[in-house]
Design a protein that fits this description.
- The longest helix has 25 residues.
- Helix 6 packs across helix 7, helix 7 packs across helix 25 and helix 8 crosses helix 11.
- With 694 residues, the protein is an alpha/beta fold.
- Helices cover 41% and strands 18% of the residues.
- It has a seven-stranded parallel beta sheet, sandwiched between helices. Strands 17-22-21-18-20-19 form a six-stranded parallel beta sheet, with helices on both faces. A five-stranded mixed barrel has the order 3-4-5-7-6.
- The chain contains 25 helices and 22 strands.
- The chain binds adenosine-5'-diphosphate (ADP) and magnesium ion (MG).
- The site of magnesium ion has 3 residues, from helix 10.
């Protein structure tokens, strides 16, 4: 499918616009503007009041003013490089127009003495004399109406002027077609939004500051267009991935009941709800693509296991994939007694399995003796085959891409997919990011966790921290010490960790472990196992302990260079303690001086242990792209919409997009056709390909 003809005029090269040559086009490209269509969505961020006033007298300077003046005496520069001055007078005051590097004849022609002109520009005092340097506008009085009372101000780049942008935008608007409406009519009416073409014209011609606000109808409509196009893309992906899988995985609940009865605690309400949502989804013959989101310690593993049991009850298999060897082993250890209770085959497969042992595991899997497999990336090897894979669970989604998600699912005939993440993404972003998935949320933690006391400590007080640690370790407690991330470089981070390890060893004289990303897996596991068993009292680590690892006796978490971590990451790290009965402490060490924002961020960590709140605040302080890492976020660049403040619109867009597709899966109705236009307009190529294959 290719771009509809009606869009051609605004998808021409930028140089079709009057006054734009290759050189200006290159400047625009720096702003991400390569076609008139992009220019249309390059909205003003401010405006200048250009209303004509009688005089500059009495107005606090500097100020941008528009007045009618009578041109007086010209005063050419006294010397090379000095200013050319023109004396002018408005109704009540005299001031100077000032020009540098000007051609005198041109000024005499444009501003002949004795004539009247409207001049508009910034007036300031220089040596006590009011002057306007290089007026923005000079007009004959009879052309006054050419000057808008409120002139838009656009974001620029070096070399580009407001005037150039305004002219280019006007050229682009001349080419903007009338398009059929893709927004649901009742929504459009309810919100009082103009049609697309009118919205563009209004957004580029604000009548005053209120028209620049994100909720001005014209701007809001254009923002909605972006959100709607994005949600359409996600909804298309969702409906394509949720094809009928040809079977329903419906367990009888027997294994689940047995395991639940054997647990020393009841499920939380949220866990029960999530299991119900997941198993209901598996029981339909549409393919599941679901996200299980829950803060650290919310009990996701158990939810995953119970869901996997439903697959086993239905005669199939399930796989749980972890991002690291340590986590895979830990999951396997956690699940072993539960699998024994259920009387089913549980196995683990990682990159460390070799030779005949590996072959045995593969044949157990292929022949169905293993019902549930836990593993790492090693699961992707082509000789790993299942007898009947029904459910693939992926832990800690943010380490895997969408493609890998799908690859794993492909190991079964359209196996259902459940992705678990402990990264509490604000709801607004969850929608933008995971809108192609259905979401189950564990918003309730198991009872009995003790709150963690969090303190901010300057690294200048390191000695006190070590004294504190010495006492605590003496009392039989265990602690983590997390070393700062140094850029992206694992090697430098490692050196830092080794140094810290040596120094703490010197100072504390207790067995201390060290884990980092470059340690061979066997040694990493050994170090973790030593710590879990209490053979080491302190564990120095780079962030490899970030996800999932569970050592209940550890009750102190020291994080060095805390200001260098993302809040969600700090939250994850802190979640490693407070798992047992003991009172836990988290010390956030920072290198002074701490900037205002950095301090505000760390203060949030002290105020709350609510991962969602932390994520919301992190988003507020850092912005959406940053929170997820722009490249990995997979979010398109929104030119107008703002995820932070327009999350309500995002939800409306999601509902609207899903509803449209439910009734018109191939976008062939008139509104569906209009929606296609929108996807072309906003260059959602991925969505367009999805329609093609649909
Ligand atoms: P998550 O993976 O969501 O961070 P886990 O699945 O590791 O959390 O669970 C954290 C701890 O809580 C585990 O020790 C687990 O056994 C325990 N747990 C899980 N569900 C419950 C529950 N309903 N009541 C009490 N403890 C629970
Ligand atoms: Mg976990």
């Amino acid at each position: 499918m290719s771009r509809p003809d009606i869009l051609f005029p605004i998808f021409a090269e930028l140089t079709v616009l009057n006054g734009i040559g290759p050189k200006l086009a290159r400047l625009f490209a720096r702003l991400g503007i390569e076609r008139p269509a992009h220019l249309l969505l390059h909205l003003p961020t401010g405006g200048t009041d250009r209303r004509l006033r009688p005089t500059i007298r009495g107005i606090p300077l500097p100020a941008t003013l528009t007045v009618e003046v009578e041109i007086g005496r010209h005063q050419p520069p006294a010397a090379q490089g000095r200013a050319y001055r023109i004396h002018v007078r408005d109704a009540e005051a005299e001031f100077l127009l000032v020009f540098f590097h000007a051609a005198p004849e041109q000024l005499r022609r444009k501003l002949p003495a004795g004539s009247r002109r409207i001049v508009s520009g910034r007036v300031e005092l220089f040596d006590g004399i009011a002057q306007m340097v290089h007026p923005d506008h000079i007009l004959r009085p009879d052309a006054a109406q050419a000057l808008p009372e409120f002139e838009p101000v656009y974001p620029l780049t070096q070399g580009l002027t407001q005037r150039t942008v305004i002219r280019a935008v006007s050229g682009a608007l001349d080419r903007a077609p009338q398009l059929p409406e893709w927004i649901e009519p009742s929504l459009l009416a309810r919100r009082g939004w103009p049609d697309w073409n009118t919205a563009l014209r209004k957004a580029h011609a604000p009548a005053g500051p209120p028209d620049l606000a994100p909720d001005a109808p014209a701007r809001e409509r254009l923002a909605y267009d972006e959100l709607f196009a994005h949600q359409l893309t996600l909804a298309l992906a969702r409906s394509r991935s949720r094809r009928a899988k040809g079977f329903a995985t419906k367990g009888d609940g027997s294994l689940r009941d047995r395991v639940i009865a054997a647990l020393p605690f009841p499920l939380t309400g949220a866990q029960a709800r999530a299991v119900a949502e997941i198993t209901a989804d598996m029981a339909s013959d549409l393919r599941m693509n679901r996200l299980l989101q829950g803060d650290v310690g919310a009990g996701k593993t158990l939810v995953a296991f119970l869901s996997m049991l439903a697959a086993v009850e239905a005669g199939g298999q399930a796989v749980l994939m972890a991002p690291t060897e340590i986590l895979a082993r830990q999951h396997h250890a956690t699940l072993r007694p539960l699998a024994a209770e259920a009387g089913i085959g549980l196995d683990i497969l990682t990159g460390r399995d070799k030779g005949t042992e590996r072959l045995r595991k593969l044949s157990d899997l292929a022949e169905g003796r293993t019902s549930i497999l836990v593993g790492t990336h090693a699961l992707f090897q082509p000789d790993v085959t299942f007898r009947d894979l029904r459910l693939a669970v992926i832990d800690e989604q943010h380490r895997f891409g969408v493609r890998q998600r799908m690859e794993l699912g492909a190991k079964g005939r359209f196996a259902d997919i459940l992705v678990m993440t402990a990264t509490p993404i604000p709801r607004s972003l969850a929608l933008a990011h995971y809108g192609d998935m259905d979401i189950s949320i564990l918003d309730e933690k198991p009872p009995g966790r003790t709150p963690v006391t969090t303190a901010l400590v300057s690294s200048q007080r390191l000695d006190e921290v070590i004294d504190h640690l010495r006492r605590a370790l003496g009392e039989g407690r265990q602690a983590y010490w997390v070393c700062p991330l140094v850029g992206e470089s694992e090697a430098i981070s490692l050196t830092a960790a080794e140094k810290r390890h040596a120094a703490l060893d010197q100072a504390l004289r207790v067995p201390i472990g060290l884990v980092h990303g470059q340690l061979p897996p066997a040694e990493k596991d050994a170090a973790m196992a030593d710590f879990a068993a209490g053979r080491t009292r302190l564990l120095v680590a780079t962030t490899v302990i970030e996800v999932g690892v569970d050592v209940p006796n550890a009750s102190i978490m020291v994080i060095e260079g805390a200001e260098k971590f993302g809040l969600s990451q700090l939250h994850q790290l802190r979640g490693r303690v407070g798992r047992g009965a003991a009172r836990s402490t988290c010390l956030l060490l920072y290198d002074p001086p701490l900037g205002e924002t950095a301090r505000a961020r760390l203060e949030i960590m002290r105020e709350t242990e609510d991962g969602f709140r932390i994520a919301e605040e992190d988003l507020r302080l850092r912005g959406a792209g940053d929170l997820l890492g722009v490249q990995q976020s997979g979010l398109p660049r929104f030119r107008i919409a703002d995820l932070e403040t327009q999350s309500d619109l995002m939800r409306v867009a999601q509902d609207d997009a899903r509803l449209l597709l439910a009734g018109d899966p191939h976008l062939t109705s008139p509104r569906g056709e209009a929606a296609r236009l929108l996807l072309f307009l906003l260059e959602r190529d991925k969505a367009i390909r999805l329609i093609d294959v649909g």
